[in-house]
From TrEMBL:
<feature type="compositionally biased region" description="Basic and acidic residues">
    <location>
        <begin position="218"/>
        <end position="229"/>
    </location>
</feature>
<feature type="region of interest" description="Disordered">
    <location>
        <begin position="218"/>
        <end position="248"/>
    </location>
</feature>
<protein>
    <recommendedName>
        <fullName>DUF4194 domain-containing protein</fullName>
    </recommendedName>
</protein>
<dbReference type="InterPro" id="IPR025449">
    <property type="entry name" value="JetB"/>
</dbReference>
<dbReference type="Pfam" id="PF13835">
    <property type="entry name" value="DUF4194"/>
</dbReference>
<feature type="compositionally biased region" description="Acidic residues">
    <location>
        <begin position="230"/>
        <end position="248"/>
    </location>
</feature>
Amino acid sequence: MTTPDDAFADDAFTTPDAIENAPDDTALSLFDGDDGMLTLEQRRCLVVMLKHQIITDEREEWPVLLRDARLIKSRLNDLFLDLVIDRDRGVAYKVQIRSDASGYVPPLLRDSAYTREETVLLAHLRQRHLAERGSGRPHAHIDRDDCLAAVAQFRPAHATDRSGDEKKAGAAVDSLVKAGILVKADGDDRFLISPVIETLLPIDRLRVIQEWLAEQNRPENALRRRIEPAADEPEDAPQDEDDEEDAA
């Protein structure tokens, strides 16, 4: 028969193995005062999702994102953001939850329409990606010069600031690199077109932009724009969601 004193003695002299195998309630604590409930790899994954507009399956955080998608989504939801994962294309991104019947939602992301040059380049990248994948190639690549030439093709005939337009075209390339739509490959001037382009520009939206570009480049419209500038973008142009911090 075990007496209370015996039981106390057993507790007082716990074996080293028992101590080593005991559950550690502080395993999630990574620094003094840490009340977080995520593991280190989960936190890294969450930070990557917050920092970047788009992540792809080439990132080391991708397996963690797929495994713990519900948990990461929950943390984003707490910030009025939602998580979108396209497993087939290997891309994930966050979107801003908008105000609804539940009341005002303070936005963390800023809506900003793509510039004319970015819109032209997005349409070109979508066409290139569509053609390359249609030819059976697993990935679509493009050179920087090809990107600049594609934008220059839709340069208004009446435009006289060639240097300024070239800078805008270069800025458009850099912007899409920063967004993760273009990924550097084999040097600074060659890029992989991210599969996210399929999500950003579905075929129906691509057609709208192509029609708008064709309309903008008609001679009579070019003459009209000299007198009365037209809208810079089609109504259905894709929107870019930037972090407020990046926008500052």
